[in-house]
Amino acid sequence: MAVSNITNIGTLPKLTPALDKLDTSNDNSVNFGDMLKDALNKVNDLQLQSQQSENDFAAGKTDNINQVMVATEKADLALQFTVAIRNKILDGYQEIMRMQI
């Protein structure tokens, strides 16, 4: 039984032109650690704003329950998203550690 070569299966898109367009010489680049710190600080700010709005509502300084609920939900969603990203990063790390070299 003879096995013939597989030909004309199509071409894959070339990724290098897209990568060549990336400008890595820009001095305004931000490293991953700074970006992560910034994102965590924003989540913390949302948590603090939520807590402040809840305290203001409990003290009678505001009577807008909608604003309190929106702030609470924003903080909750941001925290859930942060935990989900952390879990994905840990899963990736554990997968890399299981790889055999």
List keywords for this structure.
101 residues, mainly alpha, 66% helix
Can you describe this structure?
The relative contact order is 0.08. The chain has 3 helices and no strands. The protein is elongated. The protein starts with 15 loop residues before the first helix and ends with a helix. The chain has a domain at 31-98. Helix content is 66%, strand content 0%. It is mainly α and 101 residues long.
Summed up, the helix count is: 3
Distance between the termini: 37 Å
| Order of helical and strand elements | HHH
Major β-sheet, in short? none
Q: What ranges have pLDDT less than 50 throughout 5 or more consecutive residues?
A: 9-13
Structural class designation: mainly alpha
* Helix fraction bin: 55-70%
Number of strands: 0
Radius of gyration: 25 Å
Shape: elongated
Strand content: under 5%
Calculate the mean pLDDT score and round it.
82
Outline of this structure?
The protein is mainly alpha-helical and 101 residues long. It is 66% helix and 0% strand.
Q: How are the elements arranged and paired?
A:
Elements: H1 16-20, H2 32-59, H3 65-98
